[in-house]
Specification:
The chain is mainly alpha-helical and 98 residues long. The protein contains 4 helices and no strands.
Length: 98
Amino acid sequence: MAVRQTGGVGVIDWALRDRRTGRIVVAQWPNTALIVWIAASVVIALSDPDGAWGLVLRVVATVALSWWAVDEVVRGANPWRRALGVVVFASLVVSLLR
């Protein structure tokens, strides 16, 4: 007979457990889209570029982070990762609409 967990432990397990491997996944090594976003963001922060170069870097960073967020929503390893993708993508949309 299977014992069903109740309370916070079961919810945390459900939210963080990778459905393919069974392992708990909170964060992973960045994939290509996230590495591009990190690199572009670092260049922007360190050089504060103006003009076309700054615009290109900001577009690259935004597209890369958007790609990552949508990928997490579609292919995230667990509900936590999918929710993180939704929050990041919604934040990007709100910041672009301002």
